[in-house]
Structure formats: C-alpha cells, structure tokens
Amino acid sequence: MGRKIKRVDLAFDWPIGKIWSGYLFQTCIDSCEDCHKAGDLMGYKRIQGSNCPDYPKFDPPSGTGYQLWETISEGSPISPVFETPEELAQWLYINNVSSFGDQTCTYEQWLSFIKGIGWAPSMIIDSSGLHSGVSYAAELERKLNNE
C-alpha cells in the first residue's frame, strides 16, 4: 500500500483517482448471472467462498511514459502521464500531490523517488517519527548515492 511509478503508454488516458478496471474484482459488474456464465465459458475457476469466477488482473498498457499511482485501493493513477521524470516531479510538486495523507514532497524528493526505487509504502515509522514513504525512500536514495 502506498505510491508507485508506472511506466505506461504516453497515450494512456485513464481518469485520475478512478480504479483501473484491470485491477478491479472483475466479477458481477453488470449481472451476476452473466458474469458467472462468462467466467464458466472462459474456463475461470470459482473463487472459494464467493462462487464468483476468478478473473485475471491486467496492467495498463506499458510504454515510455511516467505516471504516479496509488496502491492503497486496488490501484489508480494520481497523475497524468508525462514523458520525463522531471515533468512528472514538477507536476506532483506544483499540485501538492499527497505522498501520504496531507504530506507532500519537494520537487527534489519526487524526482529522486521517480528516478530511484519508484515504489514506497504509505508511511514509515522510525525513531524520529512518522514519515511519508515517498520522502523516506527519496532520503534513502540520496544517502545511497552520497548526495
């Protein structure tokens, strides 16, 4: 659960904050009966305890673009797609995008996170307190690179 950089197609156009359909529990969207029939026809096993087909998850189209996603729910984009890490970091900084709760990051922290590990849990607790996972990951990147 946290924040993740995804490399997606530059033309990927999915609404910010809307859970990506490929990560939704794919069953019973329109009709349970139709869902079960479709799952049976496609040969999907039933999920134990729910009797619903176990539809496979699928990622958004991959590509050269950079996009920030939240992984707290099933997963949804929280930024548009950008061509470069710098453009994404600038957008995240200018728009005060959450790195955890009401916390955000500096441009440098976002950029270090995007170019570095690219995934962080929502928060980290250490001896100095509570930190957003993104800012903590960015600080670790800085230390590892002796900056």
Descriptive overview:
The longest helix is centred in the last third of the chain and has 12 residues, at 133-144. The strands form 2 sheets. A 4-stranded antiparallel sheet has the order 3-2-1-4. The protein has a domain at 2-14 and 60-144. The protein has 4 helices and 6 strands, in the order βαββααβββα. A hairpin with a 5-residue loop joins β2 (65-70) and β3. By secondary structure, the protein is of the alpha+beta class.
Which tags fit this structure?
single chain, 4 helices, alpha+beta, 6 strands, 147 residues, four-stranded antiparallel beta sheet, two-stranded antiparallel sheet, 29% helix
In short:
This protein has 147 residues and is α+β, with helices and mostly antiparallel strands. It is 29% helix and 18% strand. The chain has a 4-stranded antiparallel sheet with strand order 3-2-1-4.
Q: How helix-rich are the residues, as a percent range?
A: 25-40%
Mean pLDDT across all amino acids:
85
Listing every helix as H and every strand as E from the N terminus to the C terminus, the arrangement reads EHEEHHEEEH
Distance between the termini: 28 Å
Query: How big a fraction of the residues is strand?
Result: 15-25%
Structural class label: alpha+beta
Number of helices: 4
Q: In order across it, which strands form the biggest sheet?
A: 3-2-1-4
Q: Regions with pLDDT < 50 over 5+ consecutive residues?
A: none
**Count of β-strands:** 6
Choose one word for the global shape. Answer: elongated
Oligomer: single chain
- Report the major sheet: 4 strands, antiparallel
Radius of gyration from the alpha-carbon trace, in angstroms: 18 Å
